[in-house]
């Protein structure tokens, strides 16, 4: 077993590869457990907590810091944690998904060591396997600017994390079983509540049950980091009588726009500035579902996440109806808002040079993937598919097989159709080649009748276009190639497409998935293998010293040698 001291040595070895970069080690020890007493919606159920907390603890880092998280799995199932939006530069070994890591088995622990390399922004973490995310286990990540980099807005009085997500009163194991049956799987289509930071909505008749509240002082400006940690629903967020100034999304500073409300899709994160410029009172904070179809109108009306913005000297409670938002089925409103979210080209972010230094105005595309997300049926079982291929998770992680046997016996490279849809739905272990340091265009086509959102680990992509119907090459004429925002999760509207550009400069095995949990769990994902054959050790990292083995390598002895001696942590 690798000692904690050895892992600190590994962490420092990772950090000192970056000469001239100031960074620190941030150490967390997490105990992941099941709690049956929290009961967010009054029904007894299993909630996944970290150190007894739901949501879990904040990871508060600065650009280039090394984050060390020792995870103890005290639940009764295998566990992995993924770091949504953290790019794991040159180090997909720490990504925490089924294709990169062996699971942390019950009663054991494993330590993640990763770096917030050249990143700033608002992100989240959550459990990535066994449908665990529907039971919690998620939490916030902040990556702050280094002091030497100017932030494009005055320092706020304080910052708040708001993790908002749909929630089910049914226990996660029952939900997981139900989605394998076409009729029962509909139970997962309509959540029972929308929670703010794990707390039930405000209800004046049951205030004692607890709701989320944020205290502000009149005249001060605050940064709210808003994330959709749900599994099904997009939502529209707004604060009664207050404007919001959008400033950042998933590691990119945006051109600042003033909003009455903001659509946040599953897996997405934003930062907004809110100035407490109203009378000293209490005000509703509201999240309501977007583009969600149901025949049970009473259910959809009750699905409101409600918190309170509380002025420090307020003597009154919230009053009146909650503020109305846009029509939840107004697709054009949502698309136009998405198009208005653009990249601030003149400010620095993780580096002093402007974000706009890295632009897509004159790139040469090396590859194009056209990916249709839809539902299918295989051998009578409901599945979700990409181009009619439903991902089937092998027992051996792809990255492990790639490293030691060149994938043999686990996957066949480039058997997945990247430009066409197969005639019939079938299982596959979908791994495609991404050309190292080439520009990849991905067109996501949503063949579902509800919202979808897609995420790519390891990168930020430039969101260049949204369109209706089928995509054709002529659609490139409509792309925004001047200031498209860079992010890692993008929404795709029903019957429509979204196009992104991504520069594949990060070697590794990278997960491309639907962020909607049922879609992901039932096969709407693939992996992009970005390979650099340069043996220079400054390229992709070697496997970590504490590498877990499983699948075809379960009884093997890890072939990893110890890293070269390095200074002790803190020296």
UniProtKB/TrEMBL annotation:
The keyword Signal appears for this protein: yes
GO MF annotation: an example: oxidoreductase activity
Residues of the Plastocyanin-like domain: 36-147, 162-313, 397-533
Superkingdom in the source lineage: Eukaryota
Alphabetical UniProt keywords: Glycoprotein, Signal
Family to which the UniProt record says this protein belongs: Belongs to the multicopper oxidase family.
Pfam (any one): Cu-oxidase_3
Extent of the signal sequence: 1-23
One GO term describing the cellular component: plasma membrane
Taxonomic source organism: Anisodus acutangulus
Cited InterPro entries: Cu-oxidase-like_N, Cu-oxidase_2nd, Cu-oxidase_C, Cu-oxidase_fam, Cupredoxin
Keyword Zinc: no
Protein name, as recorded: Monocopper oxidase-like protein SKU5
């Amino acid at each position: 077993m690798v000692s904690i001291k050895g892992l600190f040595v590994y962490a420092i070895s990772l950090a000192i590869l970056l000469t001239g970069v100031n960074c620190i080690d941030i150490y967390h020890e997490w105990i992941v457990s099941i709690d049956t007493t929290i009961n967010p919606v009054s029904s007894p159920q299993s909630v996944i907590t970290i150190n007894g907390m739901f949501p879990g603890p904040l990871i508060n880092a600065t650009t280039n810091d090394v984050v060390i998280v020792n995870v103890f799995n005290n639940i009764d199932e295998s566990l992995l944690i993924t770091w949504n939006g953290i790019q794991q530069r040159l180090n997909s070994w720490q990504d925490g998904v089924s294709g990169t890591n062996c699971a942390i088995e019950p009663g054991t622990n494993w330590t993640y060591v990763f770096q917030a390399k050249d990143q700033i922004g608002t992100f989240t973490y959550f459990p990535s396997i066994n449908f665990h995310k529907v039971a919690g286990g998620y939490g916030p990540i902040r990556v702050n600017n280094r002091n030497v980099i100017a932030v494009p807005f005055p320092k706020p009085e304080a910052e708040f994390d708001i993790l908002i997500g749909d929630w089910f009163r049914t226990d996660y194991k029952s939900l997981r079983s139900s989605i394998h049956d076409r009729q029962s799987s509909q139970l997962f289509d309509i959540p029972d509540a929308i929670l703010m930071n794990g707390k039930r909505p405000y209800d004046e008749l049951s205030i004692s049950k607890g709701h989320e509240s944020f205290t502000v002082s009149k005249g001060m400006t605050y940064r709210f980091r808003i994330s959709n940690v749900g599994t099904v629903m997009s939502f529209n967020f707004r604060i009664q009588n207050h404007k919001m100034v959008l400033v950042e999304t998933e590691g990119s500073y945006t051109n600042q726009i003033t909003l009455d409300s903001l659509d946040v899709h599953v897996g997405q994160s934003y930062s907004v500035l809110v100035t407490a410029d109203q009378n000293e009172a209490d005000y509703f904070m509201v999240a309501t579902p977007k583009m969600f179809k149901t025949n049970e109108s009473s259910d959809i009306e009750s699905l409101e996440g409600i918190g309170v913005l509380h002025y420090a000297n307020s003597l009154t409670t919230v009053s009146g109806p909650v503020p109305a938002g846009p029509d939840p089925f107004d697709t054009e409103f949502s698309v136009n808002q998405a198009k208005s979210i653009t990249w601030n080209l003149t400010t620095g972010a993780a580096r002093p040079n402007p974000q706009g230094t890295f632009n897509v105005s004159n790139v040469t595309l090396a590859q194009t993937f056209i990916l249709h997300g839809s539902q299918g049926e295989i051998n009578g079982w409901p599945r979700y598919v990409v181009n009619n291929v439903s991902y089937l998770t092998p027992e051996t992680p792809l990255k492990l097989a790639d490293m030691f046997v060149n994938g043999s016996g686990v996957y066949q490279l480039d058997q997945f159709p990247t430009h066409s849809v197969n005639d019939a739905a079938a299982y596959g272990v979908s791994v495609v080649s991404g050309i190292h340091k080439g520009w990849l265009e991905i067109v996501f086509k949503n063949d579902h009748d509800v919202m979808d959102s897609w995420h790519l680990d390891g990168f930020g992509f430039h969101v260049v276009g949204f369109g209706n119907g089928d995509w054709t090459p002529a659609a490139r004429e409509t792309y925004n190639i001047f200031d498209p925002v860079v992010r890692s999760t993008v929404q795709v509207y029903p019957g429509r497409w979204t196009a992104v550009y991504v520069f594949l400069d990060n070697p590794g095995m990278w997960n491309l998935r639907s962020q909607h949990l049922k879609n992901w769990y039932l096969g709407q994902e693939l992996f992009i293998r970005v390979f650099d054959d340069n043996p220079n050790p400054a390229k992709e990292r070697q496997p970590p010293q504490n590498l877990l083995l499983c699948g075809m390598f379960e009884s093997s002895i890890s072939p990893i040698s110890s890293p070269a001696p390095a200074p002790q942590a803190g020296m």
